[in-house]
Each structure stands twice: as structure tokens, then as C-alpha cells.
């Protein structure tokens, strides 16, 4: 076995030990197929007010511009599918935000993995990315054979569906590269048909400015009146396109204690959410991604749903 294969096996074994669902590797190079797609999406203003999507266009497509001398992109998946869901009489929160903010949880695991690589393999330089820098996570995960990008534009796998986070380590180490898997969406249009705001404008193309996740989290101004009655009780994020996807029949609950929600989050009714105070908000969402919207954002979303 060559050293590339040996190093790759070592890394994948350690990733499993750290709790990642799966790990795939691809060559750090310019994403040629993604470039025209990203450009078209931006030109059609499908990113709405997410101005940051326009920044660092070249870095988004070329990891060697992010990490000098990089040779490999290691993509990792971490399951967040919960064992219990919210009270049915409730305003809904996207499952990924039930527990502690994933940025912290995954960053720690990635640092451990990088440290392991440096200890076991030697002088390896790299950077960890969790949905916070200009990295096209889904494109890299698909290129690394971890799944295919579905019609709802999320990464999908036959074994476990799509309820997982994607993260990367970009390193200056030559590794054995994986190959992409085939698309298994077939003729299914469940996600397109179910989207409450018709945000999936065509298969594999989501208009971000119409997506409930965007409207309830990213959008800082008032929610446009064209979405009256269409938020489907979602007050933070939205899981509709994933919930209806046949592949998510295979989702299994995660085993990460930090992703477990507070009891209140699961038991609260609509009335409880409508009466929530700043203190209670801080207690329930102490280290949660929901803190991004602040209480005022959550209230804005609830008021919009109620009217």
C-alpha cells in the first residue's frame, strides 16, 4: 500500500472515531462545473440580501486560493437527525438548530482531526471550514463521493438521506481521491411539489430569496407580504423539502449529546412561544444557532405567521 492510500485510510478511520458519518476526499482544484452555475444564480439575484455570497467569487471556486499549497479537500458529514421532534402544536424550528450551534461542535472535531493528521503524518498544514467561509460545501462533498446534490439542492445519500452537516479540512497533503456517486432522484418531484413558497424554481435550482430558511433567518427587513400565509408555521428555518424526501426514510437519530435540545424546545406550544421573554429565550437557546435571529427576529416571524 502506498503512503497516499495509507494516509487516507488513517484519516477516514479517525474521522469515524470522532463521530463523523462519513469522510471523502477530492483534489483541491478549481470547481469548473460550479463556476457558471454560481455566476448564473448570483446574476439572477437568487441570493436575496445575502450579499456575502457575492464576495470572494474566485476563492469559492478554488481552494488553493484559501489554503496555500493545498492538495486535498477532506469532506465530512455529521448527523443531526433528532430522536424526538417538537410538540405538533408549535411554531417550528429547523431540526439542525435543536441543540448547540453546530459551528462550535464541528470546529472542535475538525481541529482534533487536523491535530491527529499532524501527529501521525507529520508537517501538514490546513484549515477547517464549517459553513462560515467561502467554501462550496455541497459541491465538495459530492465531488468526494459522499452523496449527490438533490433537486432541492441539498446533498443526499441513499443510506441516510440528508439530515447532516457538511464540513471540510483543506490540507497540503496528497491523498487518494474518491469519485462522485450517481444521482438517485429519478423522476421524483416531492420536494418541488411540497415547497410552501415555490422556492425550488426548477429541479436543482433554489431561489434563495423565496426560501423560508432565508425569510426567517437571513432576511433582516420585513418579510414581504407575498409570503402571507405561506410560512407553514416555521419560525426558524424550514425542513419541508427534506421531510418529504423519500431518502430520509433512512435517517437515523444522531448520537451527539451536544445536539440534544432543551425540554422546553420540544414541549412548548404556540402560546408559549408567543409569550416568550428575553430571559427564557436566552435559557432555551443559550448556545444555539437560533441566537442569530435574536428574540426580536423570532417575534417578527411569529407575528408574520399569526397575521
From TrEMBL:
<dbReference type="GO" id="GO:0052693">
    <property type="term" value="F:epoxyqueuosine reductase activity"/>
</dbReference>
<keyword id="KW-0004">4Fe-4S</keyword>
<comment type="function">
    <text>Catalyzes the conversion of epoxyqueuosine (oQ) to queuosine (Q), which is a hypermodified base found in the wobble positions of tRNA(Asp), tRNA(Asn), tRNA(His) and tRNA(Tyr).</text>
</comment>
<dbReference type="GO" id="GO:0051539">
    <property type="term" value="F:4 iron, 4 sulfur cluster binding"/>
</dbReference>
<keyword id="KW-0170">Cobalt</keyword>
<dbReference type="GO" id="GO:0008616">
    <property type="term" value="P:tRNA queuosine(34) biosynthetic process"/>
</dbReference>
<feature type="binding site">
    <location>
        <position position="211"/>
    </location>
    <ligand>
        <name>[4Fe-4S] cluster 2</name>
    </ligand>
</feature>
<feature type="binding site">
    <location>
        <position position="213"/>
    </location>
    <ligand>
        <name>cob(II)alamin</name>
    </ligand>
</feature>
<keyword id="KW-0560">Oxidoreductase</keyword>
<keyword id="KW-0671">Queuosine biosynthesis</keyword>
<comment type="subunit">
    <text>Monomer.</text>
</comment>
<feature type="binding site">
    <location>
        <position position="188"/>
    </location>
    <ligand>
        <name>[4Fe-4S] cluster 1</name>
    </ligand>
</feature>
<dbReference type="InterPro" id="IPR004453">
    <property type="entry name" value="QueG"/>
</dbReference>
<keyword id="KW-0408">Iron</keyword>
<feature type="binding site">
    <location>
        <position position="191"/>
    </location>
    <ligand>
        <name>[4Fe-4S] cluster 1</name>
    </ligand>
</feature>
<keyword id="KW-0963">Cytoplasm</keyword>
<keyword id="KW-0846">Cobalamin</keyword>
<feature type="binding site">
    <location>
        <position position="131"/>
    </location>
    <ligand>
        <name>cob(II)alamin</name>
    </ligand>
</feature>
<dbReference type="InterPro" id="IPR013542">
    <property type="entry name" value="QueG_DUF1730"/>
</dbReference>
<dbReference type="Pfam" id="PF08331">
    <property type="entry name" value="QueG_DUF1730"/>
</dbReference>
<protein>
    <recommendedName>
        <fullName>Epoxyqueuosine reductase</fullName>
        <ecNumber>1.17.99.6</ecNumber>
    </recommendedName>
</protein>
<feature type="binding site">
    <location>
        <position position="245"/>
    </location>
    <ligand>
        <name>[4Fe-4S] cluster 1</name>
    </ligand>
</feature>
<dbReference type="GO" id="GO:0031419">
    <property type="term" value="F:cobalamin binding"/>
</dbReference>
<feature type="binding site">
    <location>
        <position position="155"/>
    </location>
    <ligand>
        <name>cob(II)alamin</name>
    </ligand>
</feature>
<comment type="pathway">
    <text>tRNA modification; tRNA-queuosine biosynthesis.</text>
</comment>
<feature type="binding site">
    <location>
        <position position="195"/>
    </location>
    <ligand>
        <name>[4Fe-4S] cluster 2</name>
    </ligand>
</feature>
<feature type="binding site">
    <location>
        <position position="60"/>
    </location>
    <ligand>
        <name>cob(II)alamin</name>
    </ligand>
</feature>
<feature type="binding site">
    <location>
        <position position="166"/>
    </location>
    <ligand>
        <name>cob(II)alamin</name>
    </ligand>
</feature>
<dbReference type="Pfam" id="PF13484">
    <property type="entry name" value="Fer4_16"/>
</dbReference>
<feature type="active site" description="Proton donor">
    <location>
        <position position="131"/>
    </location>
</feature>
<dbReference type="GO" id="GO:0046872">
    <property type="term" value="F:metal ion binding"/>
</dbReference>
<keyword id="KW-0479">Metal-binding</keyword>
<keyword id="KW-0819">tRNA processing</keyword>
<feature type="binding site">
    <location>
        <position position="185"/>
    </location>
    <ligand>
        <name>[4Fe-4S] cluster 1</name>
    </ligand>
</feature>
<feature type="binding site">
    <location>
        <position position="238"/>
    </location>
    <ligand>
        <name>[4Fe-4S] cluster 2</name>
    </ligand>
</feature>
<feature type="binding site">
    <location>
        <position position="220"/>
    </location>
    <ligand>
        <name>tRNA</name>
    </ligand>
</feature>
<dbReference type="InterPro" id="IPR017900">
    <property type="entry name" value="4Fe4S_Fe_S_CS"/>
</dbReference>
<dbReference type="InterPro" id="IPR017896">
    <property type="entry name" value="4Fe4S_Fe-S-bd"/>
</dbReference>
<feature type="domain" description="4Fe-4S ferredoxin-type">
    <location>
        <begin position="173"/>
        <end position="205"/>
    </location>
</feature>
<dbReference type="GO" id="GO:0005737">
    <property type="term" value="C:cytoplasm"/>
</dbReference>
<keyword id="KW-0411">Iron-sulfur</keyword>
<feature type="binding site">
    <location>
        <position position="241"/>
    </location>
    <ligand>
        <name>[4Fe-4S] cluster 2</name>
    </ligand>
</feature>
